[in-house]
Amino acid sequence: MSVGSAADIHAVEAANQEFYGAFENADLDRMNALWAHDADGREISCVHPGWPLLRGRGEVLRSLALIMANTKYIQFVLTDVQVAVSGDIAVLTCSENILTASETEEPSFAPGGNVVSTNAFVRTGEGWKLWLHHGSPVLDQVEEEVDEQ
Amino acid sequence: MSVGSAADIHAVEAANQEFYGAFENADLDRMNALWAHDADGREISCVHPGWPLLRGRGEVLRSLALIMANTKYIQFVLTDVQVAVSGDIAVLTCSENILTASETEEPSFAPGGNVVSTNAFVRTGEGWKLWLHHGSPVLDQVEEEVDEQ
């Protein structure tokens, strides 16, 4: 269930799919095109699972290039997608169910864990552009993680 | 640097401080009051560091009651706060620098780690209300965490 006009919600969901499609294909050109440009007071921001907050196209796109270059295979299955649009901002939350290539030499695939994401988009002259990606790891044993700190 | 009218940005920053103030004081009444009400297609959502996505006031407020009841002492120092407001949605990103009571019996305080948060607010007849809190752990050794999965 989502809030906003059907056209906006559809366009935001398509922009969101473009992010995951570009990631799966390790396509930096598509990644460059789908992120918003930095503006006064509105730098793009990105949090990879377990990472600190990155701000600005330079830092964000370099980090994505690095991660994509070091990812052999990845596929995202999104569930629990919810979108809210108001004015020129859209906020989408979803769960990413990740499939990755296993580390062994045998060709096989393994569950790559679960990530929760908040993706925010801004409306521009060129359509909805990604302005914030915040992914966080779903840890199996939160209690243990907390104790380790 | 933030985007929106000065009055909106000020009000959103105050609503954000109210969230952390209520948390520090383990005040469930204040927590109940500052979160938005669920609406069609716009349930409140919450991700605690390392947790899966929780939706709806029931789940979210129960989780906060549980965490606050089990937290002896916590203080948040927010840095790198950025706000964007458009229409009836505001999105705030920040880094939480956390101070907690140490586990030893000696009265002392220890760094409780770093969390990155995305907090989204909706404009209501009663002012800006929290609609999404997404906190994610900043892990010291991301590589190790990934290998463990």
Shape of chain A: globular
Instruction: Give the CATH topology of chain A.
Output: Nuclear Transport Factor 2, Chain: A
Give a short account of the largest sheet of chain A: 6 strands, mixed
Task: List the helices and strands of chain A in order.
Answer: HHEEHEEEEH
- Count of extended strands of chain A: 6
InterPro entries (chains A, B): NTF2-like_dom_sf, SnoaL-like
Domain SnoaL-like (chains A, B): 12-138
Protein name (chains A, B): DUF4440 domain-containing protein
Organism (chains A, B): Bailinhaonella thermotolerans
Secondary structure blueprint with pairings:
Two copies of one chain form a homodimer.
Chain A: H1 6-24, H2 28-34, E1 45-47, E2 54-55, H3 57-69, E3 74-86, E4 89-101, E5 109-124, E6 127-137, H4 142-148
Parallel strand pairs in A: 1-6
Antiparallel strand pairs in A: 1-2, 3-4, 4-5, 5-6
Organism (chains A, B): Bailinhaonella thermotolerans
Domain SnoaL-like (chains A, B): 12-138
Protein name (chains A, B): DUF4440 domain-containing protein
What does this structure look like?
2 copies of one chain form a homodimer. Chain A has one domain (6-136): Nuclear Transport Factor 2, Chain: A (Roll). In chain A, a hairpin with a 7-residue loop joins strand 4 (89-101) and strand 5 (109-124). Chain A is globular. The model of chain A is unreliable at 142-149 (pLDDT under 50). Chain A starts with 5 loop residues before the first helix and ends with a helix. Chain A is of the alpha+beta class and 149 residues long. Chain A is 31% helix and 39% strand. Chains A and B meet through strand 3, strand 4, strand 5, strand 6 and helix 4 of A and strand 3, strand 4, strand 5, strand 6 and helix 4 of B.
